Amino acid sequence: MGESAATNNHHQHGQAFNISVDVPPHFSSKGIDDDGRPQRTGTVWTASAHVITAVIGSGVLSLAWAIAQLGWIAGPTVMFLFAFVIYYTSTLLADCYRSGDPLFGKRNYTYMDAVRSNLGESKVKLCGLIQYMNIFGVAIGYTIAASISMMAIKRSNCFHESGEKNPCHISSNPYMIGFGITQLLFSQIPDFDQIWWLSIVAAVMSFTYSSIGLGLGVAKVADNGTIGGSFTGISIGTVTQAQKIWRSFQALGNIAFAYSFSIILIEIQDTVKSPPSEAKTMKKATLISTSVTTLFYMLCGCMGYAAFGDRSPGNLLTGFGFYNPYWLLDIANAAIVIHLVGAYQVYCQPLFAFVEKYAAEKWPENKLIAKDIKIPVPFFPPYNLNLFRLAWRSGFVILTTVISMLLPFFNDVVGILGAFGFWPLTVYFPIEMYTAQKKIEKWSSRWICLQMLSVACLIISVAAAAGSIAGVVLDLKVYRPFKTSY
């Protein structure tokens, strides 16, 4: 999912409560925008880069498996359909950046600001709840994915040393605990949004492991001399008829997860300069970035499927389709772990800040919440320890780690997250906001078409969620909590 540029989400808490001064356009002085802020300098290319960085994440690793469930015809078709829906609803969302006039209307700095301006306060609460539950789920998904990659490094070295004779079964628990301890330390950094380099590191890492996956897929196809897979996907016999249906639904959720970036689109648009209007620039950027991402996904997903056919692993780099060169797999998996360590924080910081802000407003007199204890650090400025922050953030990390240890199923969790976030955040809210802003009449042909799109996407989301939940139920039949090894 697109992870790293989610740093922009941090502005949710800095910007949503700033008082902006709307300066008439002819008063805008050099270096200052019409809202009294420093002039924005973003272009089509910087916005496209942000979106590509945000989208190409760990979701790419489950695409070969998703295409294997659907086959050579339905797989790429579904991927194109998702790309089209995401592009179309993103253009609607881009129009909601300014309320009223597209060039001089009031700016909405974040996704939730846009919901507040167009749909009112009650919908903001619903949007916030979905957004924050999604973040909680992503934290669990990242813990699972990181531990799987750490185990893959250990197993690939073990295979190599034993000449591929030892099955090398190991438990995921120590790796999840290790990842959790790392996050305990990182989560205590109070102002993570200033670490801009994190986004760059995460972007480089996601391109590294995606490209290695693609390269290994190409090499495997060349080595096999044939293209694997079939027109209808995994055959009944390899799986039961019920499994085939549930897995096909789950594949929809996995593809949705790989594409989702609507949640940060408004924040990216807030970096773009005008004229031309920010909406015009953002629509171009969305077209470029969706096209590049789709091409990249097609290559990774289709090459993975061509290499392994029905046996395509749930996670391309850890499913042990590839054994050699083992050092290259180690580099790819290390890149995933580094990416996910940063991405976890980038995603969770807005939730941390939201809870702390709420607590500070609700109980301003409480010493635990309000008081910082200064701890001297040699060679650095003193560290401000806040006991509430220490307890709440540590509790959050521990809870997500324990849940990950109870449900260590990468594909199912990715499918649930994709299904849960796709319809409300990518389709429902953008369509509702656009309808309200453009005052589209109820029962007009435009209104009916938009509602039909929304309902169709809701059905897909429900099917994807059902498939992923069925997957978890099937996994739990053979799984013993905290004991299963791989």
From TrEMBL:
Keywords: Amino-acid transport, Cell membrane, Membrane, Symport, Transmembrane, Transmembrane helix, Transport
A Pfam family assignment: Aa_trans
Keyword DNA-binding in annotation: no
GO terms under cellular component: plasma membrane
GO molecular function: symporter activity
Chief location bin: membrane
TM regions (residue ranges): 47-67, 73-97, 132-153, 195-218, 287-306, 326-347, 390-407, 413-431, 452-474
Subcellular location: Cell membrane
Family label: Belongs to the amino acid/polyamine transporter 2 family. Amino acid/auxin permease (AAAP) (TC 2.A.18.2) subfamily.
Protein name per the record: Amino acid permease 2-like
